[in-house]
Amino acid sequence: MTPRAWAALTLAGLVVTLLVAAVLLVPWSRPPAPRADQLAALGELPRAEVARAREFRGALRPGSYGALVVGLLAALALGLTPLGAKLVSLAGRPFGDHWIAQAVLGGLLVVLAADLLTLPFAAWRHAVVARYGLSTQGWGGWTVDLLKSYAVSAVIGAVALLGFYTVTRLAPRWWWAFGAAGAAGLVVLLSFILPVLVEPVFNRFTPMEQGPLRTELMTLAARDGVPVRDVLVADASRRTRAVNAYVSGFGPTRRIVVYDTLLREATPAEVTSVVAHELGHAKDQDVFTGTLTGALGAAAAVIVLYLLGSWGALLRVAGVESIAEPRAFPLLIALVTVAGLVATPVQALVSRHVEARADEHALTLTGDPATFEAMQRRLSTVNLSDPDPPRWEYLYSASHPSTVERMAAARAHARGGGG
Ligand SMILES: [Zn+2]
Questions:
Q1: Which residues cross the membrane (predicted)?
Q2: How far apart are CA 220 and CA 227, in angstroms?
Q3: Are strands 205-207 and 245-248 parallel, antiparallel or unpaired?
């Protein structure tokens, strides 16, 4: 068998594994929250608050979709014309066209060029978020965060670029196999090290102080049979008024993180409700599942790119001879950008099902649907989220069920229909 045939076979195996994982691990069969309950919940929310949240979301929209369109156009312009390849060559020129300079500097230059084009939209977003009082950050702090995220991406990107183009040189016929394994390994590695190494670049985490709430949360975790090393508090208040909590890492790096804003805004019972939701993620291994499917997806993507690399017309429009050369990196970015736009609604759909299961877990664990509903209302109010967003936007990108869906699920649970 040729390397190409092996690649096609491996890809088929990965796709089947992904589909099986999606069928088995995603809780597809959650009962939908009755629309009548959703509308009743919406009717009970203060009208002025709903209007303000919708106004805020409307003000964000031109920036968000503008960034999406400009980002796509930039990726296509760089990848599907010789422009990007020329940019990569340019980066290598001061270094005698050395491949390492082309691979690392050229690659980072292409990404930076695309980032700079969408920067005005990010600034617009910050201006809107600040105008509505959701951000507590000035332009100085915003810029520092931006530079930090560029720095983190540059470090991870440089390692990935150097690794990838070393492999394409050493194994010109089999690079896809090493590349797929490397991409999968990188996803797993990032899942372990991001919470430990990268999150502290942006926030300070301190163990939740001893007291009734901490005792209550640790007892809740023990009762749930979920091994939690610690509950950490993030100093999110230095950039936002928004409230949140999440679980990150798995195995020895798993922890529950609660925003300090949540502790300030919500009652202890509501915090318990949020943490019960996060325990649901931990208990159902959602981070592990996400990492596993992410790793399989990344491996499959590398092989798809390799197979597309034999498409002569594609290489010609990009002005390159081989998909495996650093000058073809902009072409890879263009293909990955398009794939990302297509994958967004699929990821959102899976995420909403997983989140609904964690909600159900919280309702069962606390046995307190009234507090759960109060917490959802508070999340929506403080975070200025549209409790019942436009259907198209919900389908395209909503990672969580809407506020009214979550409130309706609590009501269904209270009636005993939520299982
Ligand atoms: Zn969640």
A1: 6-26, 62-80, 100-124, 145-168, 174-198, 287-308, 328-350
A2: 11
A3: unpaired
From the CA of 88, how far away is ligand 1's center (Å)?
40
Evaluate whether 242 touches 383 at the Cβ level (below 8 Å).
yes
355 CA from centroid of ligand 1 (Å): 5
pLDDT of residue 419: 45
312-349 burial: b if 16+ Cβ within 10 Å, else e: eebbeebbbeebbbbbbbbbbbbbebeeeeeeeeebbb
pTM over 0.85: yes
CA of 401 to the centre of ligand 1 (A): 10
Q: How many CA atoms lie within 13 A of 180 on its CB side?
A: 21
* d(CA 321, ligand 1 centre) in Å: 45
Q: How confident is the model at residue 226 (pLDDT cuts 50, 70, 90)?
A: confident
Domain boundaries in the chain?
Answer: 30-414
* Distance (Å) from CA 352 to ligand 1 centroid: 9
pLDDT over 70 for what percent of the chain? 98
Give the model's pLDDT for residue 253.
67
Neighbours of 9 (CB within 10 A): 12
pLDDT at 249: 67
102: CA distance to ligand 1 center in Å?
41
Q: What angle do CA 153, 156, 157 make, to 5 degrees?
A: 75
Question: pLDDT class for 31, splitting at 50, 70, 90?
Answer: confident
Cα 275 to middle of ligand 1, angstroms = 9
- Ligand 1 center to 236 CA (angstroms): 18
145 Cα: distance to centroid of ligand 1 (angstroms): 25
